[in-house]
Design goal:
Order of helices and strands: HEHEHEHHEHEHEHEHEEHHEHH
Structural class: alpha/beta
CATH class: Alpha Beta
Radius of gyration: 21 Å
CATH superfamily: Bacterial extracellular solute-binding protein, family 7
Helix content: 40-55%
Strand content: 15-25%
Bound molecules: ligand 6CS
CATH architecture: 3-Layer(aba) Sandwich
Shape: globular
Number of domains: 1
Distance between the termini: 62 Å
Number of helices: 13
Number of strands: 10
Largest sheet: 10 strands, mixed
Amino acid sequence: MEFKKLKMLLVAGMIAATSLSADTWKYAFGEGMSDPQGIYANAFKDFIEENSRHKIELYKVGSLGEEADMMEQAKAGLLHFIGQSTGYMGATIPEMDVFTVPYVLPTDTKELDYFFKNSKVVNDMLPKIFHKHGLELLAIFPEGEMAVTTMEEFRSPDDLQGKKMRVMPGSPILVETYQAFGASPQPMTWGDLVGALKTGMIDGQENPTVWIEAYGLDDLTKVLTYTGHGHFNASMSANKKFFDELGTRDKRLVQEAANHAHKTILEEAQKLDAIGIGRIVRTNPDYKIVMLTQKEREPFKQAAKKVQQSFASKSASNKKIMEQIQRDLAQAQKNAK
Ligand code: 6CS
């Protein structure tokens, strides 16, 4: 056999060996196995394992530390994949705070579905920004409308005056939001939240309904209020160096698995709020549920304008993201069915 042909065969063999090798990839995420991030992670794992010889090891929140630790591990390449709530990411990737700016995202799940599938911010701009942080963004998805749980009923920013409200740590915009709403924001990790509610260290918190029910936050507060100010979202990324070094076949496999998991969770996301509220009403009938009227929302929306401007003024990149998300959301409002 000629030397050139032999060399080509050897190279082809090496490529095949790389793409057919059975690797084990580590994937940590910020929730439990049956929570939205767990549903996404399991759908991703199943797809990879059914379509290749690779294995995915899943680590739920707490098993490898808190959210901040997981992010460090993913950036350092100790983790291959990371699932994380966008509300924890603003300090590391400031542009991600666009998802926490109040009264930007709609509450309509069909619009959100269209937005997450078609948004230029999500599918084009943020992946490039993630590259600068050593990450390959693979998905962003919603987990439900933000609901505020408190000890006392509130109908206006005046009622929230001085109330100690827990927010996820790492997001300057969440702090600014609750300041604008009249409250005293208290950034703390998920691990500290339940204890803080039990001991009265805080007067309330925000989370999606399905999570409030699953972790008994309704039993630790008296009222749940829908203000319409936000939506809870999560992201999934790979370590960029690991992703870049994958062969063409494995890159495609990872992208297809991410698309499959995204489709799975977007279908699920349409039902999450109804599931959460249905369970709360059944299991905790005395719990007060308040839906602020459009008129009651107005002062919150006015207060939110300052936060929207603050986000856009933090950098040229934030400004571009804010302008594009408005265009993406206008498209979603027009086209979502
Ligand atoms: O409030 C939190 O910190 C948590 N909430 C949800 C819905 N997912 C994970 C996050 O840690």
